[in-house]
Write a structure and sequence with these properties.
Layout (H helix, E strand, L loop, with lengths): L4 E5 L3 E4 L7 E5 L11 E5 L8 E4 L14 E7 L7 E5 L12 E8 L1 E2 L2 E2 L1 E7 L7 E6 L9 E6 L8 E7 L4
Antiparallel strand pairs: 1-6, 1-8, 2-3, 2-8, 4-7, 5-6, 7-14, 8-13, 9-10, 11-12, 11-14
Amino acid sequence: MRKFSSLLIVMLLSIMSANAKMEPILVADFEGGVIPAGWTQEVTGVAPTLAWTVQSKAEATRPASVRRGDYRLSVVNPGTLYGTSVRLISPVMNLSQSHEPRLTFSRAALSSSGYLDTLRVYYRTSASAGWIMLNEYASPTSGNNWADEELQLPAANATYQIAFEFVDGTA
């Protein structure tokens, strides 16, 4: 049986420092209709065509909305790629002067025919360091609606990166 699912995130991805002003360090809202320069993707598994893409309001289905603005970031899965994953990796960020930096984002995860994909959020402290998982979201959002998330970013330094990983699920 073929499944069709999508995982949607990051209409407004921001990394903020918990100083008195909560100033943004990085804001990625994808409102340019493309993934911004400096972001990269890595695919593992059997489907090198699986990718994060930017969708407009007009393209939005399941849910038929964007969280904010006119665009959303999405991985649309045709349902035949079990075990395949794709990471969207941020540019290197200097968080060394940040006090208790936080990542905020919105996500919608849909289930179809009993299948569910997973979103994992990672960080690393240098390009040569291994990825460390911050959180995993393996359940649909309530009513297939948007959920706002916030994660504290540990071990902040001058060569920090985050990654969002879509993992193709199984029944």
